[in-house]
Amino acid sequence: MNISRFLFLALLGVLSGCALVVQGTKQTVNFSSDPPGATFTVAGQTATTPASLELPKDDYQIAFRHPGYEDVSVDLHRKMSAWFIGSIVMGVVASTIDFATGAWQEFESTDIKVTLQALPDTVVELVVTVSSNPPGADIMIGGRSYGSTPRELRLSWQPAEREKEVTLRLAGHAPKTAALLRSEKTLAADLEALPVPVTVKFGSKPDGAEIRIDGRPQGRTPIPVELTWKTGDKPRSAEWILEGYKPEKRAITGETKELTVELQELIDQIVLPLRIEPAGAKVIVDGIALPDGAKQVTLAWSLSKTKHTLMLSQPGYTSRTVEVKRAAAATVLELRLAPALPGNP
Fold this sequence. Notes:
- By secondary structure, this protein is mainly β.
- It folds into four domains: about 110 residues, no CATH class; about 70 residues, Immunoglobulin-like; about 70 residues, Immunoglobulin-like (Sandwich); about 70 residues, Immunoglobulin-like.
- It contains four helices and 30 strands.
- The strands form nine sheets. Strands 3-2-5-6 form a four-stranded antiparallel beta sheet, with no helix packed on it.
- The longest helix is centred in the N-terminal third of the chain and has 13 residues.
- It is elongated.
- About 15% of the residues are buried.
């Protein structure tokens, strides 16, 4: 091959049609049908839906056939490819090659889908997807189980049959019955949870606390309380209330069977003013010494702490012990130490 001929062929390859290079003279077309399994013939090729075929770019009339269904014909036409415009821009040679090879065109659609109509007096099978919330429900149709949700089913329909009764059953939920129409492709249902009784034993230390569930009084501990729960219920609030103790709260669920809490006493802090003579006397409260010359003391009171002991002393005076009770906690404690007699401490 001489150089001039080689260069000519190389230039011809460069200038060959843009559409021919990008798309070629054939194109892949996808075929599907509802229901699937229809046979068709196109461009000398016979296939069954769903199928994908590579076809020469031409106009076709395609007939789909399925036992028990009416035949359906579909036209597949061509149109000018957008790539052919690029060929025209490249010049006469490129556009001529695309036109001569048929690469200038493309199919109007590459996805052909047909819906087949059943013939009269024909039993047909239709696909339906059955789902439930929550999932896992047993699907019952005509007394027969079809598995659990979600599930795709292929159901047979008699010629005059327009609907089927579908019942969904799931433990802990009320059965749900719905009508499935022949034309429907999906059936979805929300299942209602059944209430489940649960007895909870409530206790407290000490006993006698009032129990409230979500603010509603139930009685005093120890006490069994029957509650009902549904699947998906949120936790509830249980509260223990007893005079002289801090209220306690706990979250309970349908899994709670017994719950006892130890209540903490309420502590009341009260300031007791001191007026002691002579000034500067040493004061010891419940074994703890106050700073010299203290003018007051803070006392803690609760159900178990109902009194405090104060010891007062001063050199040259007789020591004195005083018991302070809750009733006198907020009044001024006035005391005068007596001078010690000779020979007495």
